[in-house]
Amino acid sequence: MEDNASTIRVYRSTLLALLALTVLTVYTGKFAPPGLGSIAGVIIIASLKAGLVAAFFMHLRFESRLIIAVCLYPLVVLSLLIGGTYLDVATRTKEASPAAAGEEQIPQQRSGAASPGPSH
């Protein structure tokens, strides 16, 4: 086991890294142009922060490979689901919408018009 001074040093370094990544997340959220690239950047930064917390504060770096694999499996499945969603959204085109296909749209009511309701 490590001595007390090196443990404090590791926790302090982890804290500083988490704070730096938090500042980077806020900067990316406020100043990066909106789009899938900035969202992907923020997700990558959040994943790095979660990895630091899991490795050092949850002591996963001292666990066996089986425990680490059990912890990583849900994260891999989640990333595949999120990645599939991004691919689906990125490949959509306007031609796939009902209006572009020639289907009739439902007319929208005017905000001042009375809505047809049950008559008493």
Features:
120 residues; mainly alpha
Structure description:
This protein is mainly α and 120 residues long. It has one domain (4-91). The chain has helices at 4-31, 36-57, 65-90. Helix 1 packs antiparallel against helix 2 (36-57). The N and C termini lie far apart (81 Å). The mean pLDDT is 80.
Please give a quick description of this structure.
The chain is mostly helical and 120 residues long.
SS element count, helices: 3
Ranges with pLDDT <50 over ≥5 residues?
Answer: none
Order of helices and strands: HHH
- Globally, the shape reads elongated
pLDDT averaged over residues: 80
How many beta-strand elements? 0
Cα end-to-end separation: 81 Å
Strand content: under 5%
Specify the helix fraction band: 55-70%
Task: Provide the structure class.
Answer: mainly alpha
Topology overview:
Elements: H1 4-31, H2 36-57, H3 65-90
